[in-house]
Description:
Elements: H1 2-14, E1 38-46, E2 57-64, E3 69-72, E4 87-94, E5 105-113, E6 123-132, E7 135-146, E8 153-158, E9 171-175
Antiparallel strand pairs: 1-4, 1-6, 2-3, 2-5, 5-8, 6-7, 8-9
Amino acid sequence: MPSLFLFLCALLTLTSFVQAKGTKPRDNFGCHSLDKPKHIDVVIETGSEPFAGTNDYIKLLLRDSAGVLCTAVDLNNPGNDHERNSIDHYKICCSEDFAKVNDGLSLFLLSHNGGYKTGTNDWFIERIEVRMKDLLLLEYRFHAWTDPTKVTMFGVSKVTSSRSNNGTPSYTLIRS
């Protein structure tokens, strides 16, 4: 009888029926070093697969269509972000020259490595969205595992500078 109880407890911890709380962005993340910062909103949805979350440090690199870069050293909000079945929001500060053309992003890269609790662990990224005010710069459904022991960067790159027939850019997955 105790083994059935332990089995049911383990099953409940692996199964989630509700959306996790997620985190909200802290104000002015990385803005202190910029004269006229431009705010970029990043939404990262962690999948609902068992053990999908991570405690690793997440770094972000964005490149617009003109080649201007915007980076965030550690995507970390107050609370427990990057958890299984959660949607986390980040407000990144970029230079005023970033995304002036409003032609979307040419490159989106995430890097994750050594967490403060467990070292390196896999992370199941479901979906990523990058916005500047009401303009959608990137929306990509990864629906994939990352493995920082094998892959240090994970992201997408625009295949061509032209847009597809339905008005959305075409991207290819990067794992390196």
